[in-house]
């Protein structure tokens, strides 16, 4: 249940990010509302899986770099992860498109901020 809620939050944040960041867009496989919503949900699920597996591995291996740069390298890592999600989704035939590396970094920053804000609102209560 928590994973599904997280995917919905990221999909909503991704939708808002495409309005804010000009270099980030999502292209559905078909121009219908259902296809568009499913595309955002699938891209959000891919992002969650990539962030959990690849992102977790990178954060463990590059921990000394995180310490040396006081965490600023996380912007670069998140941008690269967003580019990886864009590559994976376009290999499937639809999904996220990022124009360049710096649009990816900006898109990841905006996506992270919006996800965090939405997460504060919809966070399930404990207990």
From TrEMBL:
Instruction: Report the transmembrane regions from the record.
Output: 7-29, 35-58, 65-89, 101-122
| UniProt name for this protein | Phage holin family protein
Question: Which UniProt keywords are present, listed alphabetically?
Answer: Membrane, Transmembrane, Transmembrane helix
Lineage, top-rank taxon, reads Bacteria
Which InterPro entries does the UniProt record give? Phage_holin_4_2 (IPR007165)
Q: Is the keyword Cell inner membrane assigned to this protein?
A: no
Signal sequence range: none
**UniProt KW Phosphoprotein keyword:** no
